[in-house]
Amino acid sequence: MVVGVLKVTLSLEGCDSLKDKRRIVRSLVDRIRREYHVAIAEVGDLDKHRRTTLGVACVSNEPSHANALLDKVLDFVETRGEAAVIASELELERY
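RESULT FIELD:
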């Protein structure tokens, strides 16, 4: 069993309030969850309205599948346009 974890830090320059941030983050999280069938949550920078950190996880039987799936999630976030990726970190762990 392979567990893949992706941590993505995003800049939300157009947000002027936490309400704006929550709207953008909720939309992004819901679309990723629906499209890629992964676990995803906002895991950091919760009270900063121009920055957020998302955690994404998946379980697979092959490291290449987990890596490809999380790469697709990262590509989706990068091309979405509402947020700019500041940093990303991908880890695969075999159990």
